[in-house]
Specification:
By secondary structure, the protein is an alpha/beta fold. It has helices at 16-27, 40-52, 67-81, 105-127, 142-145, 152-172, 189-194, 197-206, 215-226; strands spanning 7-10, 31-36, 57-61, 86-89, 133-138, 176-183, 237-240. The protein has a 7-stranded parallel sheet with strand order 3-2-1-4-5-6-7, with helices on both faces.
Length: 247
């Protein structure tokens, strides 16, 4: 187990990529604090599965745009699980597809807070308990290519997460490594809600691997970046898109 004795926080850990990250890190021996906003069933079942295999975990509801909720999550992880070694900033979302001309300031701020401010708050709070370790930020292919129709603010927020990743790597090294991941088309509720089936099929067929990604594909990369196997990697934003876009 490459992460035995480590404590990880995974935000948005109740479903899809986040839940896959929770389970993958736990399989490698990490104790896991799971944040969720509305996916309580997935978060609670993850805790049950981790405890059944002899691990430690808890799930906690919270709005990560609220500083008090962030502090409560991080403090509980540090006190109950023994510090913070790994932070996976996965929480976020598109909210709705809106072109600039139909977007109001409230929508802009909501998406920016959800995807960007939450990362700032989580990193700041976690650093009070981290002396070493790894931070992994889940960005998006949209941060590189601007995203699909009506996704300008989402893409902008994810591009900012990528830039924050680079800056934090400089600021927090050598003891804490910071990397980002830019998923492409992954089989998640995000695309179940916001992407038409025919678009998903076309995108999958356009990749050299001829498929959508699975949440565990991303989780395996998160696990690698959290472990000492990636000890000389920091400040990167790694693509995981089946070869659809090369950076």
């Amino acid at each position: 187990m490459t992460l035995k004795g480590k404590t990880a926080i995974v935000t948005g850990g109740g479903r899809d990529i986040g839940r896959a990250c929770v389970m993958r890190l736990a399989q490698e021996g990490a104790s896991v604090a799971i944040n969720y906003h509305s996916s309580s069933a997935g978060a609670d079942s993850a805790v049950e599965e981790i405890k059944a295999m002899g691990g430690s975990a808890f799930a906690m509801q919270g709005d990560l745009t609220n500083e008090a909720d962030v502090t409560a999550l991080v403090d509980r992880a540090a006190s109950e699980l023994g510090g913070v070694d790994i932070l996976v900033n996965n929480a976020g979302g598109l909210v709705a597809r809106k072109r600039i001309e139909e977007m109001d300031l409230a929508h802009w701020n909501t998406v920016m807070d959800l995807n960007l401010t939450s990362v700032f708050l989580m990193v700041k709070a976690s650093l009070a308990h981290m002396t070493s370790g790894a931070i992994i930020n889940i960005a998006s292919q949209a941060g590189r290519d601007g995203g699909g129709p009506g996704a300008v603010v989402y893409a902008t927020s994810k591009g900012a997460v990528m830039t924050m990743t680079r800056g934090l790597a400089k600021e927090l090294g050598p003891d804490i490594r910071v990397n980002g991941i830019c998923p492409g088309m992954i089989d998640t509720d995000f695309h179940n809600v916001f992407t038409k089936d025919e678009v998903r099929k076309n995108v999958a067929n356009a990749t050299p691997l001829k498929r959508e990604g699975a949440p565990m594909d991303v989780a395996n990369l998160v696990n690698y970046l959290a472990s000492d196997q990636s000890a000389f990697i920091t400040g990167t934003n790694m693509d995981i898109n089946g070869g659809l876009v090369f950076s």
